[in-house]
Amino acid sequence: MKSSAYANDTIAIASTIGENYALPLNVTAASLLKNKGRSFKVDWYVFESDLTAETKSILERSYQGTDITFHWVHQPLSEFDHLPQGGRGVARMYQRLAIADSFPSELTTLLYLDADLLILGNIEELMSTDLEDHVVGAVQDMAVPTVSSPLGLHDFQKMNLSPDKPYFNAGVLLMNLTRWKQEGVTERAMAYLESARRVRLLDQDALNAVLHSAWKPLHYRWNVIGSIAGRGFFKAKYLNKKQYMESLSDPAIIHFGGYMKPWLIQTLGNKWDDEYNKVLADQELDFAYQRTTKAMFYSLYDRYFRSCLYPVERAIWKHLY
Predict the structure, then answer these.
(1) Terminus of the chain with fewer CB atoms < 10 Å: N or C?
(2) How far, CA to CA in Å, does 20 sit from each of 43, 100, 133, 216?
(3) pTM over cut 0.90
(4) How many domains, the chain?
C-alpha cells in the first residue's frame, strides 16, 4: 500500500517521551519544521506519562501558527510493569508497541519518531514510500546490524534466523497501521517479551523478533546513528557500503541513540554535534548541560579515546547485556 495522509494533506507522527525528553523533542520538531517542505501539515501525537502542564504549554506555544500541532496522549508506564525491565532500554520504550491501537482505522500510515533525532531532510519524501504489503519500513541498525550482533536478538538461533539476518532500529518507523493491526503485532510483541528468556533492547528486540520477515528496508539516510557514523573507528561491516556512503553525504535523519546525548553533554566527537547545538540553542525550554564527572568522562572518551577503544566497548555490550 502507498502511504496516505490522515486528512486534508496532514501527516500523522507519533513519539513517546517523558518530561526529561521534552527538550530533545523540541529540537526534533524544530528541525523537522525547518526541512519539512510546504505540502503537508503535521499532527504530532505525543504519548507521555509525566509531562507537566507547563511543558505542554511551552511546546504548544513554540509551534503556534506553524504547520505542527501537538496532541497529548497520557499513557501510564504501569501498563508495562509485567514486561522485562533493564538491559539497554527503559520501560518507556514499551509505549511504542501500544500506540498503533490508539488510532482509528481511517488512519493507515503513521510515522513514529524517537525524540533524540535531528531532521535534515524533507520528511514528506519518507512519507511517500510505498510499503507494499510490509508492516513497517525501517532502517538497518548501524550499531546492531544483524540479529547476532552484540545487543542483537539473544534467541535468534532458536528462531531459526540466519546470523546475518538484518536487525532494524526502531527509532524511525514508517508504520502500515492496517497491516500492523491485521497481524496483531502489539499482541505478538507482548507475548514474545513475556516468554523471552533474555531481551537487550526491550521493544526493539520484540519488533525484530515478530517482524523479521515483514519489514521493508529504508535507505540508511533515514536513520543515521550519529554517535558512530562517518567516524574512523566505525567499520560498516554487514552494511551496504554504497548506501552507507550516500547516507553520510546526504543524511536525512541523524539519530543520537545510546548514552552520549548532545543536549546533556556539551562537547562530543560526532559529526553533527555542532549542528544539533545550533538548533538546541534556539529552543525556549530551559536546559543546562550536565557538569558531572560522568558527563566529563563521556565527553573525553568520545572525543579522544573511543577511536581506539571502540572494539572494547562492543565486547562489553556482548558480555553485559
Answers:
(1) N
(2) 22, 24, 36, 32
(3) yes
(4) 1
